[in-house]
Amino acid sequence: MTVQQQTKQAAQGLINQPAGDLDAIIEEQLDVKSERYYYAKQWQLIWWRFRRHRLAMLSSILLIFFYLIAIIPGFMSPYLPQTRFENRQQSPPSKVLIWDENGSLQRPFVYALTRVLDPKTFKYIYTEDRSQRFPIRFFVEGDTYKFWGQWETNRHLFGTGLDGPPLVLFGTDELGRDILSRTFYGSRISLSIGFVGVILSFFIGVTLGGISGYFGGIADEIIQRIIDFLLSIPALPFWMALAAALPRDWSVTQTYFAITVILSIIGWSGLARVVRGKLLALREEDYALAAQAAGASQPRIIFRHLLPGFTSHLIVSLTLAIPGSILGETTLSFLGLGMQPPAVSWGVLLGDAQDMVVVAQQPWRLIPGAFVVIAVLLFNFVGDGLRDAADPYAN
Amino acid sequence: MLLYIVRRVIMLIPILFLISIVSFIVIELPPGDWVSNYITNLRNSGIDLQEEEAARLTAIYGFDQPSYVRYGKWMTGILTRGDFGWSFQWGKPVNDILRERLPFTIIISFSALILSWLIAIPIGIYSATHPYSLVDYIATILAFVWVATPGFLLAFVSAWLIFRYLDFSPLGLNSTEFLDAPWNTAKLIDRIKHLILPIVIIGLSGTGATIRVMRANLLDELKKQYVTTARAKGVPELTILFKYPVRIAFNPLFSTIGWLLPAIISGEVIISVVLSMPTMGPALLRATLAQDMYLVGSIVLILSSLTVLGTLISDIYLAWADPRIRFDATGK
Amino acid sequence: MTDQRDILVEVEDLRVHFHLQEGVVRAVDGVSFVIRYGKTLGVIGESGSGKSVSSQALLGILPIPPAKIESGQITMHLQENGVGHRSVILSDLPTRGRDYRAIRGKEIGIIFQEPMTSFSPVHTIGNQIMESVLLHMDGISKKEARERTIEILRRVGIPRAEYRVDNYPHQFSGGMRQRAMIAMALACNPKLVIADEPTTALDVTIEAQILELLQDLQQEFGMAIMYISHDLAVVGSVADEIMVMYLGLVMEQASTDQLFDNPLHPYTQALLRSIPTIDGPLERLLTIQGTMPSPFTEYRGCPFFSRCGKRIAGVCDTARPPLIEVEPGHKVRCVLYK
Question: Percentage of chain C with pLDDT > 70?
Fold first, then answer.
């Protein structure tokens, strides 16, 4: 609008000119809720909006639960990942019962199983031994393990105790190992690789995206071309190719970090794009120009003025990037190119179950897959919730 | 417009160049003395290499020279002779293997892409025009779950379900009885039956995201002023919907090809492995496990180039379809 | 003064409420007015006064799930070429139905505020204008429609119309686009043209051209105009009658001369006072104190109470003043007048 039109509009009473008693009238009309809203800081606003998103809140809680399992798998699982049950190979999940033979209610328990080999099909047949009930107890004693490699203990969250039959809620594999314990232990790698990989992508992405967006020019052109190129490489074949170069004899830790690096090599480009886009847009905003006119130095402009504008978007992008890494590691390990046994990750567990025949007979082997799907879903929900909460113009 | 096309094609060259370099880095990645490694691998896989043969290979591929020379030789080979290198695993030139498998990759990938659009667009339109309806919720939920499930898992579970309930093994291109049989209608039908599952699964993997993009774009467009204008002129609702916002929301879909195509090709790789399709996927996997690096690098090169070309075509279409770009001399 | 024969549109006690999550917005809360053939009704108000919503209700393009016409009647009296007379009660018609669609675009045209976003960017201007023509003029061929389109473009002052008809909206300048918008509104020779802030987004010089164009076109085509604006100076120059709205109610209604010679309502007076003039002594710009209250507030008395310089506490805020005819053709809603 021209200056004349602006003046005209101002003249038509559209400019707020609080006079003494009018303030009182105005404030009456701002009820308490609106006033808190009016004065709240940005983060509080985002948090309040996020809280209203029930799905995102629920997902966050579940995710915290998942990560709890990943942090203290020893306690959460009844057994160690390498514990083998000699007579329980390829057995289906333990049936937890609450009604005994006479129909009366008991606390949850399991029966021991006896096993015979069917001479015709060469398959194991498991029958329940109803003579004794083994209740499931909590804070029970079991295999000894080290809490975070430091404190030795043998207490587990739940189980049947030192002399009870195996409590295998997800069944066992061909070596008789408890799949639930292995899944829980596997979450350490599967859930953390996403995080670590994304952190790496974050640093590279924000730096390069920042340079690209803020300074523009040649640097921008070059970085843009690189990003274009990186985004056009199909991710999985590339990861496979890079993983091919990993020596088989590397330790678990070395492989772990190598995979993190592999996953973030393409990953940072997405983040860089977001950062660049936001910086480009915000750079021209009036408040940035005002800061410049007021004589602020460039770092100050970037950190104090521009960055807060899109930190929330950055967090959203990060949250939504984690599932990609999780899926990446899972797929690579499934193919045999990622984490190798004896390391346990959900992908490795699924890789063990690769045979169609195996899956047909032992469908419980796919349960780790469900964990992957759920974890990814949860991250997506949380990310979506954050995104809705962070966008001030959504409503 | 022509200027725009020329500019885009020129911008393609550095990208293709970068791709070739990265592919080459992939080839060179495994540690160890390349020359003897390679020759040892060949010998290990049962191919008895005579001295002259070893020397010949060394000369052709430049194993005794610095890496950039090898890169030069490799690229020259590709550009002039179509020679992508030698696969010791198969005992064949790489381009033989590529030639066998590339057509299937392309067919399956592009069929999947088109399928994903055919499904996503109507659902997206319906979701946007009836937001928060039952269909919308179901579509959104399905889309979420789909995106969350790893492709191989989906392929696996579907294959198993089909096997169990339909008594039909969808693995491979043809069922065992047709493998060596001559071409006839029955074989064709069988082949189509086998192709359905991979195309559907790969296609559906992109569908979820496409539906959401279509829905979001359309919702945005429906709020715009020109829709109100059309309504104010008395145009019937259905006509308004398809002539204006759908048409405009449709275009950005093409710009999604930029990430959709690599995703589909990635998906194709892994799902072909699970479903035993004779495409690049299984070849790549075997090659990576055996460290048959020329094959690995060449596949990466080809797949990336495919993606870039696909993106170029879609960008050109976009420019043509949007008059703002077409009639703009600066041609961004 | 009230000649029934030349009434084109009659709006009686219209109430349009928006049912939103946060509450109910009484956008139009009991408004009555009349538009006469060939005359211009000016509607003045700030944003939120309900002026645009009234015009949307007329056209039947209100977003019906949140919006609802709670009560009132909109009647259109159509004279076919001076012979025959049919009255259509628009408020009774289903808004998406064929009958309403036959009126929209054909009998009523509309010019929106922002011409850039009002046109589809991927269709030519010609295509969009012809759409209207082909839709409403039975039996017209594509060729004839195109010729008619070129002719109307020429008439609104677009040079080289036969070439420009195939251009896209972004190839037009702002003023030219607005002219094209006017052409589109007039394409089917409507009896009423609603102009919703047509010049707000334009430069002042272009604004003057557009205003002049509208007046010329009205001379030539004889359509009625409902001119909506927040700019009293502009409306004063084009309207025969003016209606001043505030928060969904009519505050004052009069002929232009009456309103400018003898503004009765304190709001009207404040508006007139705040128009800056070039001649005259340099004074402080007068503003109207306070701001518009939230659209969700329910108030019992006069909506202007919080900002009125002449308010009487205890009287103005207890009951809504009725609309009273103070002199023939001049109505006002204020307790100061009985």
Answer: 94
Contact list, A13 vs chain C (CB under 8 Å): 46, 270-271, 274, 287-288, 307
What pLDDT is stored for residue C278 in this prediction? 67
Subunits adjacent to chain A (3 or more Cβ pairs under 8 Å): B, C
CA distance B243 to chain A (A): 27
Please give the interface size between A and C, counted as residue pairs whose CB atoms are below 8 Å apart.
Answer: 56
Write out the residues of chain B at the interface with chain C, using a CB-CB cutoff of 8 A: 224-226, 228-237, 243-244, 247-248, 251, 321-324, 327
Chain C residues whose CB is inside 8 A of the B247 CB are 122
Distances, alpha carbon B285 to alpha carbons A261, A354, B290, B294, C102, in Å? 20, 14, 9, 13, 65
- Nearest neighbour of B232 by CB, restricted to C105, C120, C168: C105
Compute the count of residue pairs across chains A and B with CB atoms less than 8 Å apart.
143
State the nearest Cα–Cα gap between C33 and chain A, in angstroms. Answer: 24
Stretch B215-241: mean pLDDT: 85
Closest to C129 in 3D by CA, of C71, C69, C169: C169
pTM, entire model: 0.73
Question: CB of A12 within 8 Å of any CB in chain C?
Answer: yes
Lowest mean pLDDT among A339-348, A373-382, B179-188: B179-188
Angle between helices C204-221 and C174-186 (to 10 degrees): 20
| Pick from C178, C190, C195, C179: nearest CA to C238 | C195
Q: How far is A228 from chain B (nearest CA, A)?
A: 8
Per the CB < 8 A criterion, the answer to whether C44 and C51 are in contact is yes
CB contact under 8 A, A225 and B307: no
Task: Tell the burial category of A222 from Cβ atoms under 10 Å away from its Cβ (0-12, 13-18, 19+).
Answer: middle
Q: Tell me if residue C117 falls in helix, strand or coil.
A: helix
CB contact (8 A) between residue C290 and residue A26: yes
Q: How many CB atoms within 10 Å of residue C188?
A: 21
* C236 confidence band (pLDDT: 50, 70, 90): confident
CA distance A365 to A174: 10
pLDDT higher than 50, residue A14: no
C-alpha B99/C-alpha B83 separation (Å) is 11
Confidence of residue C35 (pLDDT cuts 50, 70, 90): very high
- Alpha-helical (H) ranges within chain A are 3-9, 20-29, 32-39, 42-52, 54-71, 73-76, 179-215, 217-232, 235-244, 252-283, 286-293, 298-300, 307-335, 346-352, 356-361, 367-390
Q: pLDDT tens digits, residue range A269-306?
A: 888 887 887 777 777 777 767 777 777 666 666 666 66
The pLDDT of C191-213, averaged and rounded, is 88
Residues from chain C that touch B220, judged by Cβ atoms under 8 A, are: none
- Compare all CA atoms of chain B with the CA of A357 and give the residue at the minimum distance: B160
- Best probe of the A interface among B23, B34, B152, by most A CBs < 10 A, is B152
Q: Name the residue among C201, C259, B314 with its Cα closest to residue A232.
A: B314
Nearest CA of chain C to the CA of B322: how many Å?
A: 6
User: Amino acid identity of C12?
Assistant: E
Q: How much is the pLDDT for C183? A: 92
Q: Which of A185-189, A312-316, A317-321 has the lowest mean pLDDT?
A: A312-316
* pLDDT number for residue A20: 39
Is B92's pLDDT higher than 70?
Answer: yes
Task: Tell me the sheet residues that pair with C111.
Answer: C195
Among B49-63, B253-267, C68-82, C180-194, the least confident range: B49-63
How does pLDDT run across A198-215, given as a tens digit for each residue? 888 888 888 888 888 777
**What does the alpha-carbon distance between residue B225 and residue C119 come to, in Å, rounded to a whole number?**
8
Q: Does C282 touch chain A (CB under 8 A)?
A: no
Which residue, chain included where needed, has tokens 């104190």? C289
